[in-house]
Amino acid sequence: MDNRSIKKLESDLWESADLLRAGSKLTSNQYCMPVLGLLFLRYAYSRFKMVEEEILKTRPVRNGRQMPVEASDFAAKSALFLPKEAQYSYLVNLPSNVASMGLVNIDGQPMASLGEVVNNAMNLVEQQSEQLTGVLPKSYTDFSDELLGELLRIFNNNALDEVGGDVIGRIYEYFLNKFAKNIASDDGVFFTPKSLVKMIVNVLEPKQGVLLDPACGSGGMFVQTGDFVNEAGLQANSSMTFYGQEKVEYNAQLCLMNMAVHGLTGVIKSGDEANSFYHDAHNLEGQCNYVMANPPFNVDKVKAESATNAGRLPFGVPKENKKKEIGNANYLWISYFYAYLNETGRAGFVMASSATDSQGSDKDIREKLVKTGHVDVMISVGNNFFYTKSLPCSLWFLDKGKEESLLNKVLFIDARNYYTTVDRTLNEWSEWQLKNLNAIVWLYRGERNKYRSLLNDYKDSIEKMIVEAGESELSIVINDIFDTGYESAKRYLKKIKDDARKEIEVTERREKRSVQNAWEERISLIEEIVTVLREAHWLYDKFGDGEYRDVLGLCKVAYTTIDGKEDPEGTSIEEKGWSLTPGAYVGVAPVKDDGVDFEERMTEIHQELLSLQVESNDLMENIMINIKELGL
Predict the structure, then answer these.
(1) Checking DSSP bridges between strand 393-399 and strand 341-352, what pairing results, if any?
(2) What is the distance, to the nearest Å, from the Cα of residue 455 to the centroid of all Cα atoms in its chain?
C-alpha cells in the first residue's frame, strides 16, 4: 500500500473519530480503542478472504461439492479464522432494524442493536485465539446504531485490502498524534516505521528460537519476523517463540490484536510487572536467540536502586544523580539487550543517535561492550524516518555468535544520505534500498552467494518490468544492467518525456486530458524501471561482483584489540575513544554532480505549469456550465 493510500486511510479514521466525538461523550482514549477494534476486524477479514482463496484452490471435492474451509486450515497459513457472524461483510450489510432479525449471541441471548452484534463478533473472534481473550473492545453498545453503521461503512474501504505490515501500529500512532500528542511524544516513545523494522529483521535473519521484544509496543517486530520466517518456507509459530513486555496495557492490547491478525501467537505481559527497568517479566536473561526493540529514548528518573536490584546489567550501572536516579536510561536498555542473549544470540535495536558516543559512565559501559567482540554492525539513520518526529537515530546489532575472523571487527554504515523521500516530512528505505544495505552486511560476513543472488534478482526483476511495460527499446539495458544500463534508461526516459510534451502540445483541447493521462501512465512505468536500475548501479558500482571494501562516506570496517590480538591495518575503535558513531569512521564522500540538467528541469516545470493551467481552465468551464444549468 503506498503512502498516499495510507494517508487516505488515516483521513477516514479522523472522520470516524469526529463522528464518535460528535455522537458520544467518550474521551479520546475511550473512543480510540473501539475504532481500532473495527479496523482490526476489517483487516482480519481482508486477510481471511485472501487466505480462504488460497485454501480453496487445493480444497478437495466430495460428491460434487468442494469441502468447506475450517479453522485449522487458517492456522496452518498463519491467519485468523473468522466465523460468518464475525466477518466484516456480514456486519456492514446488516439491515438498519437489527432487532427484527431475531439474532442471538454466543450465549443464546437475543440481540436488539447493532452494537450488540458487533460485541458478539468480537467475542466470536476471541474464541478463535486464546491470546485475544479479554483483549478486543466490546463497548459498541455505547454508540447508536446509526453512528456505528456509519463507522462500519467508513472502514468498508478497498484500500484496507492492500495494507501490509504493522498497520495497527501506524494508525495507533496517528491517533495518539492527533488526540493525545503528549502521550505520543513523551518519554521518547515512537512507533517504529516499517523500513527500520525490516532492516533489523533482515540483518538478524531470524529462523528459529526465542524472540524477545522488551518494549514491544504494537508488535511490529513480531509481525515482520513472522513474515520473514514464513517467506523462508518455515512456519513462524512452529519455529519461533514470541515474548513481549509492554508497560502500557493499552499498547499490549494493540500488540495482541496485531499478532492475532497475522496468525501469530505469543506471550505478552503488560502493566507494572512488564516495566523493563525493574522486571525481567519472562525470566529470559541469557535465554534469547533474538532480541529486537525500539525502546523509548533518553528516559530519565529511573530509580537507580530498583534498576540495580533488577539485574541484567553485565557492564555495570550508569551513573546516578543526587536524587538516586539514572538521568538517561539508554545504556540500561543496551545492557538489557546484551544480557538477554544466549551464547549465540543476536540483537538488533533502534537507539538515539547520541548514545553512540555519549560520555561519562555511558562511555565506560560502551568500552566494555566493544571489548566483548560482540558489536556487529552500526547503522546511522537520517532525519524524518519517524512519523511524528524528525530526529535521527542509529541501528545497533550485537552478535554473540560471530565467527572468529569477525570477532574484533565492527561494520559501520552511514546511511543518513541514502533513502527515498516519501513526502516533505517522511523518508524511508525502499525494498531495493533495504536489500542494498543488507548486501553490505552479507559481504562483511563473507556471504558472497547472497550478494550474487541479489544481482540475479535485479536482472530478473528489471527484465520482467521492461516486458510488462512493453518498452522493447529498453531491452538493450538487460545486457548491461550494472554498468551503463542506468544512464541508457535515463536517456530513454528523457526521450519519452520529450515525445509526450510534443504530442500533448499539438493535441486538441478536448482530447488533451486523455492523451496526457496515457503518457503519464507510460512515463510512470519507465520511471520505476529507471529507479530499480539506479539502485542496481549504486550497489554494483561499489562492490562489483561481490567483494567487501570500505567505501568513503558509506561503510567502513574498524577494529579493536581482543585477547591480545594486534589491530590489523585500519582504523582502531580505541583511537576513536570507543565511539560507535559511523560518521566518525566512514568519512565524507566527495560531492558529486546531482545529474540534474537545469534546462531540462526548467522545461519540465514549465510543462507542469501549463498542464495545471489546462486543468484550471477545464474546471472553470465546468463550473460555469453548472452555474448556467442552475439558472444563476
Answers:
(1) antiparallel
(2) 24
